[in-house]
Every structure is written in C-alpha cells, then in structure tokens.
Design brief:
Blueprint (H helix, E strand, L loop, with lengths): L1 E5 L4 H16 L3 E7 L3 H6 L3 E5 L12 H16 L12 E4 L4 H11 L3 E5 L21 H29 L7 H10 L4 E3 L16 E3 L15 H8 L5 E4 L8 H14 L4 E4 L12 E4 L4 H4 L5 E4 L3 H9 L4 E3 L6 H10 L14 H13 L1 H15 L3 H14 L1
Parallel strand pairs: 1-2, 1-4, 2-3, 4-5, 5-6, 6-7, 8-9, 8-11, 9-10, 11-12
Helix pairs in contact: 1-14, 3-5, 8-12, 12-13
C-alpha cells in the first residue's frame, strides 16, 4: 500500500512521524512523508520518500501574545494550503494526517475519494477531563473545560478558513467552511489515533467513538547513530549532567538565558549540557558543554534531569528515559504538557519561560535531582510506556480500514 503521511510545524511536530513512517515501511508499505523543506534530511535519513509542503515555520515563528501566534499560524497555513494538493499528485492509497494537516487533508480526501486517518500528537477533542492544550494547562472545571475546548477548535477553524476556501476552489469542490467540514468529520466519527501514552494522558471517557490513545511514536534512530565524541567525553568526565533545552520555538536574549541556565546549574552543584536550539543557547566551561541536535534516545538515559520547554516529544522522551524534569514552557501546547508532567510527579511545577530566574531554576533543579520521588515517578511512567505499541496500533487500524 502507498501511504502519504502529512505533517507540518516545528521539529517536534514532524520528527515522531519519521519513526512511525519507518515502522510502516518495515511492515511492507511504501511511505511518503510530506512536510516542509527544513525536515527533508530527517525524512530521508529514516528511509522515507520526501514530499515538499510549501511553507516554512521559521518564516512565521513569533513568540508573543495569543494574537501574534494566531496571525503567524494563519500565515503558515495559508502558505501551505496554496500548494498542498501537489503532495497527492501520484494518488496514494491512504492519507495519514497530523493535527496541523488534517483540516486541509480532509478536502483532498473528499476530492479524491482516498480514505484517511488522523494521527495526532496532542489531544484535540473537547473533554471535561482537562482544558484544551492551547491554554494555560490549569483545569477550569468539567463544563468550562469542554466549552474552552470547543472555542479552541473554533479558533483553529478561523486559522484555516482562508486556506480551506482556496483549496476547495482549486479542487473544484462546492463551498464548505472549515468549521462545516470539521462538523461533518465529527458526525462521521472520523478516526483519530493519538500518539501519546495513557500513562500521561488517559483517554477521556466523554470522547466520541473513533478517538483512541495508542502510545508514543518515537523519532527514527538509525542503527549506526552515536552520540558525538565530545558529548561522550563530557558524560564520562564526571557525575550525570543536566540537559537544558528550550526547543525550536523559544526566542529572546540568548546570552541572558544562557547565563541564567549556567548560573542556576552551578548554584545547584550540577554539570550541564546546553542544547543551542532555536534560542541559540551557548556557554563555555569545564562543567558545561554546548551541543546542537543530538538523539534524545541516546542522551536522556544518561542524565540527572532535563530542563526543557515541555514540547510533547521532549516530555515523552524524558519520561521514556525515566528522567525527572524541570519544565519551562514557552507557548502553544507546552503549558499543557508541563502541567501533566507535574501532575504525575515526574517534574517540578512549571516555570513559565518569561518568568525564568536563576533562583527559581536552581531551586527546581535541587528538588528534582535530590528528592527521589521525582525520579521514582518518572521511572514508573517509563515502565508503563514501555508496554505501549503506538506504531503497531496504527498498523492494526490500517488493516481494519483496508480489510473492511
């Protein structure tokens, strides 16, 4: 079967699909991963065919208020929608759509008659159990949580409205709004598989049929991949260090934030590895190392803790390694995941990126590295996650769709 997997966003929004795609390819499917040009090397390294989506998150990345984020998202989606149809030029047998590509992919599926399946990294369906992932992460109560979830979907539809209208004109489909298509999919119980663990977010009992939490999809790791020599040397030179990484979304004063991180590490008596990321963290010293991209799967099990932005993929990787965390959420779904990590006891209370101080970070580092309850909670979640088979559940769903 020829499968087109479409995903877009930051690195954390794309990398998990390289692992899922590689598992599907290993099961005998021909897999094309359509995403933006920046991630072509990741796709090809996983042995997948790359298909370009015409947009660039870096050109629209704005970390500020919610209004700025909405404008940036709408600009990104509109640019992507202008050429989304070309990704299906060779007519695949099945579409697998991420949360960012589904509101466009639904219309391609309608025009072509090709079956589709959602493969999402964040919980998107409204529920009384927790607030939508784009809010602060604090529960508002069951009624308000559901109302906020419906409002979040309405805002998503507004972001996609212009792109959807243009795409439907191009596909010569009758007029249908983004919200109208979403309601149609909900009535049809369009299936969505969520790629996170029930150990972190149990499936809400008030979700409609067709929504299933299947387990995390991990970024592809080649059999020959190793940590860089300088990282291995640093790891062997002393006690387990702490990784500090704010992902690809953070923006601000790199020197100031790097200084906060290093001073907090030293105040807590810890060695550190700074991952440069989108912010450009950097520092020098015998007790600190600056790195670029490194495989989390290889590095995290050898750390004392991780200071991170609480992106879904980084949060899951720390739990998989059984390592406690200090979360510093920046925007989007990060406050949600930070709250979930704290709720299961695997992380200290979140420190919002804008509120980061030496004293606050040092105090949190001392707690998560010296109070064993954090490590025990992370290890407990890790054991539960090891029983998940996210890619296997996707393969089962595909078999059911094609055999049915």
């Amino acid at each position: 079967m020829r499968i087109l997997l479409a995903a877009a966003g930051s690195r954390g929004d794309v990398a998990p699909y390289t692992g899922l795609g590689a598992e599907l390819r290993g099961a005998g499917h021909e897999v094309v991963l359509a995403t933006t040009e920046a991630f072509a090397p990741l796709v090809r390294a996983a042995g997948l065919e790359f298909r370009r989506l015409p947009a660039d998150t870096r050109a629209h990345r704005e970390v500020g208020g919610r209004r700025e984020l909405m404008r940036a998202a709408a600009a990104f989606v509109t640019e992507m929608g202008q050429g989304f149809a070309e990704a299906m030029d060779d007519r695949p047998d099945l579409l697998l759509l991420s949360a960012t590509t589904a509101p466009l992919g639904w219309h391609l599926a309608e025009a072509s008659g090709i079956p589709s399946l959602g493969v999402y990294l964040q919980p998107t369906e409204p529920t009384g159990d927790f607030p939508p992932t784009v809010t602060t992460g604090r529960s508002l109560g069951r009624f308000a949580n559901r109302a906020a979830g419906r409002f979040a979907l309405a805002m998503t539809d507004r972001v996609y409205a212009e792109a959807v209208a243009g795409l439907r004109r191009r596909l010569r489909l009758p007029t249908l709004s983004a919200s109208g298509m979403r309601r149609r999919q909900e009535r049809a119980n369009w299936p969505i598989l969520y790629g996170f663990s029930t150990a972190l977010v149990p499936r809400p009992s008030d979700w409609r049929p067709g929504l299933d939490v299947v387990g995390t999809w991990w970024p592809h790791l080649g059999a020959a991949e190793r940590l860089p020599v300088q990282v291995e040397d640093f790891l062997r030179a002393g006690p387990r260090p702490v990784l500090v990484s704010f992902g690809s979304m953070a923006a601000g004063d790199a020197d100031r934030v790097s200084g906060i991180a290093v001073e907090a590490l030293r105040s807590a008596g810890l060695r550190g590895i700074l991952q440069s990321g989108g912010l450009g963290l950097a520092a020098e010293g015998d007790d600190v190392l600056t790195v670029g991209d490194v495989p989390h799967t290889l590095l995290f099990p050898r750390l004392a803790a991780v200071v991170h932005h609480a992106g879904a993929g980084t949060a899951a990787a720390a739990l998989r390694a059984g390592v406690p965390a200090v979360t510093v959420p920046v925007a989007a779904d990060q406050p949600f995941w930070a709250a979930r990590l704290a709720a299961v006891g695997a992380a200290a209370g979140p420190i919002p990126f804008r509120s980061l101080t030496v004293e606050g970070l040092a105090d949190a580092l001392v707690r998560v590295t010296r109070q064993q309850s954090y490590a025990r909670a992370a290890e407990s979640i890790s054991r539960r996650m090891a029983a998940d088979d996210g890619a296997g559940r996707v393969l089962t769903a595909i078999r059911r769709m094609t055999e049915g």
